[in-house]
Design brief:
Layout (H helix, E strand, L loop, with lengths): L13 H6 L7 E4 L3 E5 L7 E7 L6 H7 L2 H17 L7 E4 L3 H4 L8 E5 L10
Antiparallel strand pairs: 1-2, 2-3, 3-5, 4-5
Bound molecules: guanosine-5'-monophosphate.
The site of guanosine-5'-monophosphate (5GP) has 13 residues, from β2.
């Protein structure tokens, strides 16, 4: 079920639990601003999720409330993970689902990083 991206942050969401170490994840990168780990149900040969360390429901919440430093740190972390996985030369795709029409299911901002093969059209037809 897609979430309502305007609701308050829910501390019990699955990514909050991964951040607290209560649930395991295949972590690939961590710094002051971001944590990156493999998606549990990959939709491409490389499917990594990058999330901010602090509590933001969605891209909307993050882009309106996060400090410039957090935003810069998070964006740099996404780029770093893509480079570390050798995705720049072949190319890759970033995706952030927001709320109902975006099909967002986990109410903690996450950017999907897809790569490892040609990814086809941007939206399924
Ligand atoms: P959304 O639809 O919210 O943009 O994407 C949520 C993503 O989180 C999905 O691709 C789903 O497979 C992934 N996911 C859901 N639960 C878990 C989990 O417990 N661990 C990991 N690593 N990924 C998860």
């Amino acid at each position: 079920m897609p979430i309502d991206a305007t609701r308050a942050y829910d501390d019990s969401n699955i990514f909050a639990r991964i951040l607290r170490g209560e649930i395991s994840a295949k972590r690939v990168y961590e710094d002051e601003f971001a944590l990156a780990f493999h998606d549990i149900a990959p939709q491409a040969p490389v499917h990594i999720l990058v999330i901010p360390k602090r509590a933001y429901v969605s891209w909307d919440d993050f882009s309106s409330r996060a400090s410039d430093g957090e935003i810069a740190g998070f964006v740099r972390a996404v780029g770093h993970v893509a480079r570390e996985h050798g995705l720049v030369e072949p190319g890759y795709r970033l995706l952030a689902n927001v709320g109902g029409h975006g099909g967002q299911e986990v109410p903690h901002l996450h950017v999907h990083l897809f790569g490892g093969q040609p990814l086809g059209p941007m939206l399924s037809r």
